[in-house]
Amino acid sequence: MNLVKQHKSFLILLLSLILLNSTAIMITPILLNQWINQDINIGIRQVGSIAILLVFSYIIQIILIYLREKFALNFNIHQAISLTKKFFGLTYDDINTKGPTYYLERIAISVNSLYIYLADGFVQMVVNVIIVCAIIVLVLTFNQLLAVILLGLLPINYFGYRSLNKELQKRSKVMQEETSSGWKDILNLCKETDYIKQLATKDALLETMKEPFTRIYSSMAKVNSFAQGISATLRSFNELMKNLMILLLAYGVIVNGESPLSIVLFSIILPLYFNAINGITNANLASRNLKESSRFIEYLDENQENNGAKLISSIDKIEFNIKNLSIGNQTLKSNIQGVFEKGDIVSVNGDSGTGKSTLMKLLPKFRVTDAILINGIDIRDISNESLRKQLVYMSQEVPIVTGTLRDNLFLGRAYNDKEINQLIKLPILQSILSNKSLDTVIEENGANLSGGEKQKIALSRVIFNEADVFVLDEITSNIDKETAGEIYKTIMSINEDKITFIISHDKMHLSYCNKVIDLQ
């Protein structure tokens, strides 16, 4: 209901226009009923009146489409950004366990559910209840038996579709889980273009993808076959009752000499009536989807990472006093101690699996620890945003967007001409700018960039960053020695007033380091 309160003005306008449109539609059968009762012949004047009402209704519908779509654009963007912000705030392990693809798909579904409920479900529920009541009252004025039949159809349809939707909700939840996990598996297999293209035959890859494809479309087929089967049964029942009522009216015309216009009147009323019932049912489904989306949003809220309240303007000193470095129940290393200050370049040594990255990920608070002090303050007490403003964590996985080289260098950050001029003069970018301009389009996942060029772009992003701590996690892996040397020289040139931690399997960086954390 908070959504309703937040967008009250829009909903009132929408409700007013839909009621106006419904009134215009309902006037037609009311006029016909009046003409039947007063024994008025249908002429040009009457047909013209109905035509004006239809044109009026059409204009209102066009206005409604415009208003809804204009609202949808702003609302959906706002909600998508808001939920994505909550996703960013999830705990590190939460994101890794289910994967970003899962959360982003659920966010897309939730945004759609919120919009459908607000712009369609809530308003349609109110309007369609009014239409159903008006039709039953209208029919009651000329045929009580048919009014009773219509009244009886209401609970049959409402509770029938409600039961269907309730079961669909359960099955759809399973389907959403299956499709999200299935597409995640498929995207993981398809994201490496070089690997796919180098395969002589794609049979083995396609065979691997067959299982997630089967999982996705089997879950969809189960839901669709169930929904269509039950819906077809209810529609067939409604069609049977509709034909029965038309036959009763025809009987009245033939046997009792009633006006044939009553059949015309009813042929207009019945579609309105059943559409209104379907509208009520769909609104109920929108409400249920809203509840499912609300539960997902509650999950996002409940699993936000811990945040401190203290603000820091710089990081001058870092102290480690870690008794046990562990992930879950596995202890990787014991008794890690050290004090690091500005100007220190620290090599974090150890074989694969000894916990080098695990240790360094404690610094930006990816995981919670009580064994690190920043400027003498327990790291848990420091605001995450405040801490991360002073710390840059770089890994070998560099985020690259499909856009220009300029877009990738600044990555959404505001910039001016002075910064551009400074950037293009950086020695580390010269090899890239020798064959690319700032307007060169970078392909998806940086397909037209080498691994070394990606790392140079990543480093260039943070050169003008005023952070006090750099954590470099295997940023020179899989690149040539010359490029690695350029990267290290650039780091050294800006390290005078910073604390730098380097994880690397090569030994090139050791000559630059004055301290070591040994996890052997």
What does this protein structure show overall?
There is one protein chain. The protein has about 525 residues and is of the alpha/beta class. It has 2 domains: about 5-300, Up-down Bundle (ABC transporter transmembrane region fold), CATH 1.20.1560; about 315-520, Rossmann fold (3-Layer(aba) Sandwich). It has helices spanning about 1-5, 10-35, 45-90, 90-100, 100-140, 145-190, 195-200, 205-255, 260-300, 355-360, 385-390, 405-410, 415-425, 430-435, 450-465, 480-495; strands at about 315-325, 330-340, 345-350, 370-375, 375-380, 390-395, 405, 440, 470-475, 500-505, 515-520. The strands form 3 sheets. The protein has a 5-stranded parallel beta sheet with strand order 6-9-10-3-11. It has a 4-stranded antiparallel beta sheet with strand order 2-1-4-5, with no helix packed on it. Helix 2 (about 10-35) packs antiparallel against helix 3, helix 5 packs antiparallel against helix 9 and helix 6 runs parallel beside helix 9 (about 260-300). The model has no long low-confidence stretch (mean pLDDT about 85).
Summarize this structure as a short list of keywords or feature phrases.
520 residues; alpha/beta; five-stranded parallel beta sheet; ABC transporter transmembrane region fold; 11% strand; 2 domains
